[in-house]
Amino acid sequence: MDAVKLTIDGKEVTTTKGTTVIQAAAEAGITIPHYCYHPKLTIAGNCRMCLVEIEKMPKLQIACNTQASEGMAVETQSPKVLAARKAVMEFLLINHPLDCPICDQAGECWLQDYYMQHDLQASRFAEGKQHERKREVFGPHVVFDGERCIKCTRCVRFLQEVTRTDELTVVDRGDHSTIALFPGTVLDNPLSANINDICPVGALTDRDFRFRVRVWYLQKTPSICPGCSTGCNISVESYQNRIARFKPRINEEVNSHWICDEGRYCFYALTDVERITAPLIRQEGGLVPTDWKTALGAVISVLSGAQPVCGVLSGRNTNEEAFLFAKLLRRLSPQARLEVYYRERKLTEVEKILKSPDRSPNFRGARDMGVSDDGFEPLLSDLLDGKFRSAYFVGEDLLREVAQGEKVRQALKKLSFLVVQDTHLSETAKLAHVVLPAVNFAEKEGTYTNRKGRIQRLRPALVPPAGARQDLEIFSLLLARVGEPIRRATPGEIFLEIAREVPRYRGLTYESIGNLGVQIES
Amino acid sequence: MEKLLLRNIEAPNSHTLELYRSRGGYRALGKVVRELSPEQLIGEVKASGLRGRGGAGFPTGMKWGFVPKDSPKPKYVVCNADESEPGTFKDRLLIEKDPHAIIEGTIIAAYSIGSHTAFIYIRGELVYGANVLQRAIEEAYRAGYLGKNILGSGYDLDLILHRGAGAYICGEETGLLSSLEGGRGWPKVKPPFPATHGLFGCPTVVNNVETLAALPWIIDQGPAKYAALGTEKSKGTKLFSVSGHIRRPGVYEVEMGYPFRQFLEQDCGGVPNGRKLKGVIPGGASMPVLRADEIEGVRMDYESFQAAGTMLGSGGVIVMDDTTCMVKAAWNIARFFAHESCGQCSPCREGCHWMEKIFSRIENGQGRKEDPDLVLSISGNIQGNTICPFGDAAAWPAAAFIKKYRAEFEAHIAQQRCAVLASE
How far is B386 from chain A (nearest CA, A)? Predict the structure, then answer.
């Protein structure tokens, strides 16, 4: 590709031909303020915030639509540019409500940020402000405030260009122009909530998240969406040890800038459960709390050498957990049948943009760790046929997930011993002989390997309740009891062991995974 | 002076093919398609010195020359008949009285770039004009000037009349193209320019009605004869539509370089009722106003108007006598632009309404001392920073009225009422 050399604020920058000035500046670490420009959408050029001065051009040019060319000299901080920026900020704010204290965008609002950086003047606007529609529900996840809108059209372009569902458009003219649904339409596509993320101001907000937490209180943890095996990079944003929202994290190799609505809100089902905080053991009359020593002892004594046994791991368990689970079950019963939960469903064309057909984010990694013999469906049918005497289920409520619930219930009732390790007393756990209280995806550390073979890190965002234990710890305690003590049962140490023992993971280090993951050959 | 553009309009049935042909109509087209290559044609138009009559004054031949010859895409010519500039009604006269001149000019322009589909985009309100043009297009098809194998030359062209839905912004060439594509009449971000990425992303030339209507005469009489008219840089003749406080309003064809004062006082009969001239906008509402004392020595051509601090624009001359309240005039113009701003880019969307609201306050007795300077500041912040020239068109007149009649604004603010009515 042809290289182009230009200077931006006196700094020499080399980029490829066809790159715009705003991109070239970003590559060189210079941020040119903007609203309507979005790297994944077409150029609209309407906000005029990215105006820059270019040598030999009489007028200021918008950096988002100007291609870098050889010898070009760009100024992003000249007096003329600063004055234009200030002017654009003033124009955007004259009709904007001054109600930041009750606006949910406050704290992550580009108008606020840019006002502080580029404007900082008292209002010169002595007229009445233009009024627009407020609190208009666009769809299940999006609510619109016309007065806060700056008409950057990012939302309109997203729906035209990414989902191609075209629910929104611009209507009316001049300072009456506003965003509106096409008549008879609802903004309800599988990616709809992304427009809340790309809206730079408080015009589009998330109906689920808004007014729950002021954003500056949020604790942000880079992690991986547990919704499916695409492995979208997310930021788990929590407050007072509860998840407040998921936000997409940019990863061009996986999810670009987006996440799907199903993934975005999937944490409710996974975390809004009544936690169990002590092991339970079955006695006459039902499950009763017990101590860990008793519970773990029961698991070892019954499962040791028991035949035939099956182990089903959740698709939300990490590689490290899967590695120890396989080690444990093979040790307890060399003929044990192991599977990771995996079922597929049909996806629509829009869903296919991001979603995978499963709900098992780490099925691929679990299989790589040896938690797979013939696939989940054959194991399930053998279970229904009564071919197993005992079973060890981790983190998946089979009675709820599998359509033949009643048949599964009868099959599980016939088992002579069932261990369930989960966060809550699920329908399946109610049939268990021993229940081990574990943690959810947001409370643990480790790695997932997505459908395409990308290893990515899951990071703990929440503190688990006292009494529950990390899955990894439970497995290592059990392993210690069968004579295979794990010296340091931390995800990092176990990953190193995986890197020694699992062929495709050979030579990797935990640190090398970083925030964006590493690809293994598929 | 011999009339070129208005040569036919006073003849009875001037809109018919029969009359047009009886006066040498479509002779130029025959010459073009039979004798000239597109390159030769572009050369002739360049030699004539013809410049765009829509307002910007860009050399027509050069504009055609920007269209890539090797593009595999279809090419389009669009006749911009969306005449909407306040004070401008010259194209309307040509449309209603001499439609065949426009059609012949459009065919010639299309031939120059190898286009086989051309459009006339006519302002929605011009219903009568649209009917006249449609009938004329049908006549031209029947006579073999449009359609397949025009005049046996092997050149094909279809011409489609499209009526706008009534927005000033659709007169801006890329707003027009967006509208013609079936979208919102939003101007496009440039680059790319229409010459390479115009209608439906294909190379496109957009020419004004008056520009196209000048072409048959230029080809028929020869570019040298046209270039001999006017000044060194502004060649030929130009239509001016004169309105306001003037004894004989109407459309005038004037040789470029004609003295402006003489034009107003003699040709148009001057300001009636013994009143005095207070100001005149020479190029449609979007151009800066000239005070009476500023028109001395100004000539009617692109360069002379520019030297006087305004522009020739569309040639819409709006005359105001000394009964005119300049605050009200400024407000009226600002209100028009606030109403017509498309709302796409921030400075124009917000700034036009802001200026309108301030003018309204001043006129209605609620002006503040700082308002005139505030308008100048807003106007300066819009100028040059918008997607299309509309921003300038709204910002220039606002600033000009304040700069040139500042005392009147200050009097309104000081007296908290309309100062002109007070002096009556």
Answer: 7
